[in-house]
Structure to design on (55 residues):
């Protein structure tokens, strides 16, 4: 379980670090909304990982 949590957190951080410069440079609100929606879905998946039991 610890590896799943670590991998999920790393994935969210990497996506944010990769896409944030594009949003700031282009100042595109729609792109920012899509990225926030993607991060929210990744966060939801990470939350579900916390809730499930390891097999």
């Amino acid at each position: 379980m610890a590896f799943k949590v670590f991998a999920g957190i790393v994935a969210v951080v990497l996506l944010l670090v990769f896409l944030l410069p594009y949003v700031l440079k282009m100042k595109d609100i729609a792109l920012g909304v899509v990225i926030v929606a993607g991060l929210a879905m990744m966060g939801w998946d990470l939350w579900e990982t916390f809730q499930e039991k390891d097999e």
